[in-house]
Amino acid sequence: MAKLENIKRKIQELKPDLQVVKPAKTKPYSDIDLNNWKEYSHVKTDTWWEFTSRDNSHGHSNEYHGNYIPQIARQLYERFTKKGDIILDMFLGSGTSAIEALNMGRRCIGVELKSEQVDIVKNKFTPKELVTDINLICSDSADISVKDKIQARLDVMRSDKAQFLILHPPYDDIIKFSDLKEDLSNCENTEKFYELFSQVAQNGYDMLEKGRFAALIIGDKYSDGEIVPLGADCASKMRELGFKMKAIIVKNMEGNERAKGKNANLWRYRALNGGFYIFKHEYIYVFQKI
Asked: pTM for this one?
């Protein structure tokens, strides 16, 4: 025993600065090393997210009205995904989820209703990336048949399920995205919007790996002189499906808006006249599939 202690002491004398490297301490759904948690100060852990502008670098752009800002994807991916994980976006739009997935070493399956929009997004990736990392599906995300199409892409990517789910639906009829009857922005009423959203969320739930996370990005609207809490109502629909709610994040909308400055006084007048307040925020609801 004394001899062993002498050897240890000699080693320490020769290498006084030698430190034992601890193995990384991570969660099953994240690459964040909790042994070095202080190094992740850029990762948000509070429920108020403020971004002064949209990040239009690294393949992102603002040509599509209604897309969410890439900083949201960046934050969510680092918290709730690992490199190589597959993000499933049921409302792909301009491809923000897919672009940021590629930027961060993740993969993505995106479902988009409009064929012309799918073609636009395809042009943002190389042919190789569209085989190895990014899979685009032109389909109705509320139709049950979309699950077979997603599963076929998962099989190609050698995964049974997706590891993260993003839902960024139209905010009911605030913005009309197409003339297609399947488009959630064309629902005849808000109740029909909720019905179709629930079907999309159910399809996403079924294709998500157990224990992994989902994010709902949504805002509210005004109609007939009263506020319609789309966020809270859609979040409630997801809880009914079996999702466990983990967070309600409030995000300022300034990074999303375009050319609203010239209308600021008009909206202020309308607010004073109508007894309401002007939206400056939207929500990011975080869920886990238990």
From this structure: 0.88
The predicted pLDDT at position 257 comes to 52
Of 54-68, 92-106, 118-132, 227-241, which gets the smallest average pLDDT?
54-68
Task: Give the lowest-confidence range in 15-29, 93-107, 201-215, 273-287.
Answer: 15-29
* Separation between Cα atoms, residue 156 and residue 85, nearest integer Å: 14
Distance from C-alpha of 267 to C-alpha of 211, rounded to nearest angstrom: 43
pLDDT above 60 (res 18): no
The DSSP annotation for the chain comes to -HHHHHHHHHHHHH-TT--PPPPP---TT----GGGGGGGTTS--SSEE--SS----TT----STTPPPHHHHHHHHHHH--TT-EEEESS-TT-HHHHHHHHTT-EEEEEES-HHHHHHHHTTS-TTHHHHTEEEEES-TTSTTHHHHHHHHHHHTT-SSEEEEEE----TTSS---S-TT-GGG-SSHHHHHHHHHHHHHHHHHTEEEEEEEEEEE--EEETTEEE-HHHHHHHHHHHHTEEEEEEEEEESTTT--S-GGGHHHHHHHHHHHT-----EEEEEEEEE-
Percent of the chain surpassing pLDDT 90:
77
Contacts of residue 85, defined as CB under 8 A and 6 or more positions apart, other chains included, come to 106, 107, 163, 164
Question: DSSP assignment of 205-245, as one string?
Answer: HHTEEEEEEEEEEE--EEETTEEE-HHHHHHHHHHHHTEEE
